[in-house]
Specification:
The protein folds into three domains: 4-17 and 169-240, no CATH class; 36-161, Domain of unknown function DUF1254 (Immunoglobulin-like, Sandwich); 244-413, Jelly Rolls (Sandwich). Helices cover 21% and strands 26% of the residues. It has seven helices and 21 strands.
């Protein structure tokens, strides 16, 4: 076990998406959600929402934690008219293996049969999951306060019907000790075996004895346990230093996402970073996430300074649905949540009521903690007095945004 420290580091990162999704599932069951059934957030996310990092303030959510161990589950997607909707299906490892809705199946709705990796399946509209556990997450666009009730009607049309399954065990959390963490990871890996394409990694972490549901922390000597603990601390440092949704390489003040966001394959480090800083991120063809950074670098802004994003008339953001600039507090663990503010405004975008455009067709967005001049308040995105992060979402991005021909102007200090 000379490489036990490295094995522990790699295994902790490898299992983090399993642990994070299991934590979301566990929190849902605590508040009364049932397995194989949808529950709904009836209001847009605000500063009180602390379940999943980097939420959006543009769509209502409907969510279902699905267990296919006892057989298929039927999913119903409602008709949505001209409204943007999507139903993201993620496997237990946080990969998006299917997206239903506006871009792929249209806005007419439909019924789909979700089957497990070993189940027999036939007929139309059958979707095979790579794992027994699935997280189904629906997003329903709200086009302003006047539209909330209509959006809720669409939200209520998402449903799941399937066999009863037992409630899962409460998992360890990422902050727990290595013995508890790897015991939970072992059980989750046994229930949701990784694909054969992960075999090289599984061989590297084999000294820990994971993936068979028989992990035994007591078999390690004190010296071995110390090496495992050191490897876990290496992993925690690595994931805290990652770039989250959009990486760390900034071009003109913006970091652009990696092409494999949402379908990570063997990029385990990136998958772990997104599990911590952007869990349930959509694939780029559905939504492109860009992170702004200040001129001095680092990706974190100071709320006590004033900032401006100027979008020239000929450089408007190329999307087929909508765009939105969201502002988040930055936690010590590098997670992102909305911050309380006097306008109850957590994002600003092309649908923001009262947004004021300049006479030449350009747009100025004002960002900072201090309330601006009244003439600018309609375009003000309030910030905390401390550090904050800015993310731009472009839903249904056009090719020029995906391939890099379009670049956003930088956020400037004023």
């Amino acid at each position: 076990m000379s490489d036990l420290r490295t094995a522990a580091r790699d295994a902790w990162l490898f299992a983090l998406p399993l642990i994070e999704i299991a934590a979301v599932r566990s929190r849902g069951l605590v508040v009364g959600s049932a397995m194989n059934a949808f529950s709904s957030m009836r209001n847009l996310a605000d500063h009180r929402q602390r379940t999943v990092t980097t939420p959006n303030n543009d769509t209502l959510y409907a969510t279902a934690q699905i267990d296919l161990s006892n057989g298929p589950v039927t999913l119903t997607v409602p008709a949505s008219g001209d409204r943007y909707v999507s139903l993201q299906l993620m496997d237990a490892w946080s990969n998006s293996f299917c997206l239903l809705g506006t871009r792929t199946t249209g806005n007419g709705g439909g019924t789909f049969t979700l089957v497990g990796p070993e189940d027999a399946a036939s007929g139309r509209n059958v979707i095979r999951s790579p794992t027994r556990h699935v997280w189904a997450l629906a997003r329903i666009l709200v086009d302003g306060p006047h539209d909330l009730d209509a959006a809720r009607l669409v939200q209520g049309g998402f449903s799941a019907q399937g066999p009863d399954v037992p409630a899962p065990a409460t998992p360890a959390r990422r902050g727990d000790g290595w013995a508890e963490y790897f015991a939970s990871a072992d059980a989750l890996m046994a229930a949701n075996p990784p694909p054969v394409t992960d075999l090289a990694l599984l061989r590297r972490i084999a000294p820990l004895g994971l993936a068979e549901g028989r992990f035994d922390a007591a078999r390690f000597t004190p010296d071995e346990a110390a090496r495992i603990e050191a490897g876990v601390e290496d992993a925690r440092k690595a994931v805290r230093g990652g770039g989250g949704l959009s990486g760390t390489n900034f071009i003109d003040g913006w970091a652009y996402p990696a092409a494999n966001l949402g379908d990570f394959r063997q990029d385990y480090g990136f998958r772990a970073v997104v599990a911590l800083g952007g869990l349930a991120a959509l694939p780029l063809v559905e939504a492109t996430y860009l992170r702004a950074g200040p001129p001095e670098g680092g990706g974190v802004f100071d709320g006590l300074r004033d900032w401006r994003l100027h979008l020239p008339a000929d450089r408007q953001i190329p999307v087929d649905a909508f765009w939105s600039l969201s502002l988040y507090e930055v936690t010590p663990e590098r997670q992102f949540f909305f911050t309380d503010n006097p306008l109850n405004r957590y994002a600003i975008g092309d649908r923001t009521p009262g947004l004021t455009w300049n006479d030449d067709g350009s747009l100025d967005l004002w960002i900072g903690h201090a309330r601006p001049d009244p003439s600018r308040e309609s375009n003000w995105l309030p910030a905390p007095a401390g550090p904050f992060a800015l993310f731009m979402r472009g839903y249904l991005p056009r090719p020029e945004l995906l391939d890099g021909r379009y670049r956003l102007p930088p956020v400037e200090a004023i």
